[in-house]
Amino acid sequence: MTDQLLNVQNLETIFKTPEGVVHAVNGVSFNLTEGETLGVVGESGCGKSVTMLSCLRLIPSPPGKTVAGEAFFHGQDLLKMSTEEIRNVRGGQISMVFQDPMTSLNPVMTIGKQLAEPLMLHMNMTREQARKRSIELLGLVGIPNAGDRLKDYPHQYSGGMRQRVMIAMALSCNPQILIADEPTTALDVTIQAQIVELVKRLRDELGMAIIWITHDLGVVASIAHRVAVMYGGYIIEDSDVKDLYLNPTHPYTLGLLGSLPQINEKEHTRLFSIEGMPPVLYNKPQSCPFAPRCTWVTERCWIENPTLEPVSPGHRVACWVDTKTGSKR
């Protein structure tokens, strides 16, 4: 995993609202290499989805606008591409699976027609070629009687099957990157596990890279190679997945992991809860955005926003305090 596919630097996105300008993403930088799975975690409103939508230029304008940054895909900046160029990238080279498959699929078009459309657009297939490929794709994601199910409409599929259709559509043009935006949120636990296993199998078979956006740290542990933890529009910790769970360093990451139930505990203990509420970002934070909720907060935290700095090989954190010793950095 040495060939870099995506390199995002200093990405900033805002939304203009009647209450003021919301600074949703505030200088996010990350990279993705071939065959790698990057988990992006954090609570609702931290900027996970907006970051990825910004890279693909899918932010509705108005009210949204990407005001700074670069997103290099194979050396070309996605943010500077023409409309035609970015359309060729979307679906063909970078695909996205959205949160709710019922609202992502067109309710008045058959599943077969929706699967065939990107194949005919990006792969220049004939209608019959696209139909045969659609049957293969539905079989690939585990939908039985695929040939007959092409005539069905989205409401005739269960939630789990609709999500499988969305994954099939995302994989139809053999993308190099699959962005999965909380694809298991609306599904029950059994179906969640099936979708995660399906994506892992397809990743290994097809060799694509994945960005998995979620607030579920349990899912991240089972699928990701590396994790980026977001808060207040920033990446506040970035690490190899095993090191993140063994050596969480940022106070917010500690809080997230502390809120997970432990099945190996000998004594019953209450789950940890992070006090306070996420910030409303009408002003771009000049201090640490987590300071109002942090138990390790120092005077410097209220004055200066820390940058991501290495604490061990492959592990970076944005914090002025060493949470293991309590000493200032």
> How would the global form be characterised?
globular
The helicity comes to 25-40%
Widest sheet: strand ordering: 6-7-8-3-9-10-12-11
Alpha-beta classification = alpha/beta
The beta-strand count equals: 12
For the record, give the distance between the C-alpha atoms at the N and C termini, rounded to a whole number: 32 Å
| Number of contiguous helices | 11
Sheet with the most strands?
8 strands, mixed
Strand content: 15-25%
Which runs of at least 5 residues are low in confidence (pLDDT < 50)? none
SSE topology string: EEEHEEHEHHHHHEHEHEEHHEE
If you compute it from the alpha carbons, what radius of gyration comes out, rounded to the nearest whole angstrom?
Answer: 21 Å
List its salient traits.
single chain, 329 residues, alpha/beta, eight-stranded mixed β-sheet, four-stranded antiparallel β-sheet, globular
Brief description of this entry?
The protein has 329 residues and is an alpha/beta fold.
